[in-house]
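Is this the right way to post structure tokens for a design question? Let me know if I should format differently. Anyway, here goes:
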């Protein structure tokens, strides 16, 4: 598998039953520049692939449900590489944006 995506493909994993039932065959897990892990799901029949955050892949696989439009899987402790299921929650996209801004350090330049 040769990737044309901007992610470094680091490992191939067995697909979860949840995504296997949705017609996907395999998942590749990589890391982007943030750093944050990403999951690229492949369907061999159609040749299509779908990329999502690894946190979303873990959450939806564990709870066997989709995340509704307008919502995102969030890392409770703010560490985007900590994809333990007990560190993941679903929150609205707008709240997630506000949450991220509240935790950033801003400097006043005079």
């Amino acid at each position: 598998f040769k990737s044309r995506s901007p992610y470094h493909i680091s490992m191939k994993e067995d697909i979860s039953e949840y995504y296997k039932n949705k017609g996907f065959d395999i998942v590749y897990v990589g890391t982007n520049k943030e750093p944050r892990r990403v999951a690229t799901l492949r369907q061999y029949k159609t040749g299509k692939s779908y990329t999502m955050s690894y946190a979303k892949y873990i959450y939806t696989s564990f709870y066997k449900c989709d995340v509704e439009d307008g919502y995102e899987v969030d890392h409770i402790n703010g560490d985007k590489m900590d994809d333990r299921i007990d560190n993941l929650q679903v929150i609205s996209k707008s709240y997630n944006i506000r949450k991220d801004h509240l935790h950033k350090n801003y400097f006043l330049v005079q």
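Format looks fine. Someone answered above. Worth noting: Helices lie at 17-20, 54-63, 93-103. Strands lie at 8-13, 26-31, 37-42, 49-53, 71-75, 88-92.
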